Amino acid sequence: MSPSSFSYVLQEVKPLTDYIYLHVLGEPLLHPQCEEILNICDANHMKVQLVTNGTFLKQYRLFKHPSVRKLSISLHSLDENPSIDLEDLYQTVLIYMDELQQDQYLELRFWRANTPSAKAEQFLAKLQNQFAFTDTKRNKSYQIKEHVYVAFADGFTWPDQNKDKVYTKGTCLGGIEQLAILVDGTVVPCCLDADGAIPFGNLFTSSLATILETKEYLDFVLALKENRLSAPLCQTCSYQTRFSK
Ligand code: SF4
Known about the structure:
- The protein has about 240 residues and is α/β, with parallel strands linked by helices.
- Helix content is about 25%, strand content about 15%.
- It contains six helices and ten strands.
- It has a seven-stranded mixed sheet with strand order 1-2-3-4-7-6-5, with helices on one face.
- Helix 1 (about 5-15) runs parallel beside helix 2 (about 35-45).
- The longest helix is centred in the middle third of the chain and has 14 residues, at about 85-100.
- The chain is globular.
- The protein starts with a helix and ends in a 20-residue tail after the last helix.
- The structure holds iron/sulfur cluster.
């Protein structure tokens, strides 16, 4: 998304939220105008939460940017990035810990705890050697330093509406507490819907307020609130089982 399109989108979402994530699918730090986009967020007093695979961390000093509130590093995907040097990334993460400001947070994610990769296990062992893990009130989340957390979760199957439908009942936060806006302006319920399988409308042709009044949006949200998965994409999504009642 270009910075000018992003500025337009930001004006639309600003009345509804104080935080945005700069991703749907993919690595946000790969965007060639990443810094310009962070500057636009800062100028609009919008706080940013970033999820990164860590490849480009060294090229930025993200906690020095006033718009960045939280950085999550997906350490479970370390084995998918052969270019990442484990020791180098570990040292970079330590620098990030030192540069944290009072209102910033660092989350180290191990989101394939049931099938950990070799590199992820090595990284975790280094953390366990250096820090004490203090249990928090959040499920499988541990504090290792002020504002620094290690979060574990089991892996999930990425949804695909062309696959066999597995679930009919369930709920999640998609569309209720979060929305995703794709590069072409399509508004969808969550960042797992990268192909726009559940389109509520297009932000470049309708206002967000109008989109949030459409039958498509209202019916989708009502179903989730009633513990029903109405969209074929959701019926293949194991991520929503994290919210099972
Ligand atoms: S069930 Fe899965 S695909 Fe559907 S809104 Fe929730 S996270 Fe997205």
